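User: I've been trying to design a sequence by hand for this structure and keep getting stuck. Would you show me what you'd pick, starting by listing the structure so we're on the same page?

Assistant: Good idea, let's start from the same input. This is the structure you sent:
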């Protein structure tokens, strides 16, 4: 099924630099913007998809060009499990080239470098670690910020459609997003803890591991609850993908432990409809200048 999410993940090969390097091109339209600039989690989702696509293209089939059958089999099961991105400048909604090189090949872990380039300038530089996702029962699951949160959003939730948030967050054409009213007091003109919970799913699709990457940056900046409003530029964002998500709504919690004078960290926890942890992230961001 075609959706905005699948469209933004469409990649075209535009060049190769030998057996370990390839350049792919994607187009990011204005749907995936916060204000005038590309949403950081959306771009990181494209980076993750590009890494998987590049690894497939750059892995010799068994028996061809010295292809290792065991390596090819292991590679086929890999997904991006860690994406560490440095945001050098804010990307625009336009074509973006993904210059990808393999830094390490392995049967357990493979590492790629992915640089997102616009107009000859690297805008986001990422290291992407590929490995098999987790399956089965965890050895330990501790308490977390989503304990007691229902699997589906309540009628009291704040939807993106028709909300003032949609004036800045333009992803409504691609996602269904509901924020927990209890943890978003700013809409009532109140303040509260730097914690936001919500529910999200892609329109017309079940979530997958790439969509989970987008979700790891979906919350409005949690410092909004402290009456610190405006753009909170991302300095660095690291996302961990733990599992393939089950069909249905994903739930997320975003929170901060330390809001400093100039920077704050924002952690996302994402669980699927079964309550299983599917992704996590930590972002270092600047305090909004508009505070």
């Amino acid at each position: 099924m075609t959706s905005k999410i699948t469209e933004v993940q469409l990649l075209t090969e535009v060049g190769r630099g030998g057996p370990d390097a390839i350049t792919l091109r994607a187009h990011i339209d204005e749907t995936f913007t916060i204000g005038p600039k590309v949403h950081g989690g959306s771009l990181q989702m494209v980076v993750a998809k590009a890494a998987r696509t590049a690894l497939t293209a750059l892995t010799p089939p068994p028996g061809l060009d010295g292809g290792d059958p065991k390596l090819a089999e292991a590679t086929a099961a890999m997904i991006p499990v860690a994406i560490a991105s440095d945001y050098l400048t804010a990307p625009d909604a336009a074509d973006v080239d993904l210059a990808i090189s393999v830094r390490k090949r392995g049967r357990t872990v493979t590492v790629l470098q992915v640089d997102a380039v616009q107009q000859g300038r690297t805008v986001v530089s990422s290291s992407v670690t590929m490995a098999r996702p987790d399956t089965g029962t965890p050895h330990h699951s501790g308490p977390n910020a989503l304990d007691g949160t229902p699997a589906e959003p309540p009628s009291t939730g704040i939807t993106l459609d028709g909300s003032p948030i949609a004036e800045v967050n333009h992803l409504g054409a691609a996602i269904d997003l509901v924020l927990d009213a209890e943890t978003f007091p700013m809409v009532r003109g109140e303040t509260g803890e730097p914690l936001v919970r919500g529910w999200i799913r892609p329109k017309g699709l079940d979530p997958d591991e790439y969509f989970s990457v987008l979700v790891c940056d979906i919350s409005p900046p949690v410092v909004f609850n402290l009456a610190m409003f405006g753009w909170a530029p991302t300095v660095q964002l690291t996302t961990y993908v733990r599992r393939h998500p089950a069909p249905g709504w994903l739930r997320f919690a975003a929170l901060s432990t330390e809001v400093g004078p100039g920077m704050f960290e924002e952690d996302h926890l994402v669980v699927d409809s079964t309550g299983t942890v599917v992704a996590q992230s930590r972002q270092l961001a600047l305090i909004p200048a508009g505070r």
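That's my pick for every position. To get oriented when you compare it with your attempt: The chain has four helices and 15 strands. The mean pLDDT is 94.
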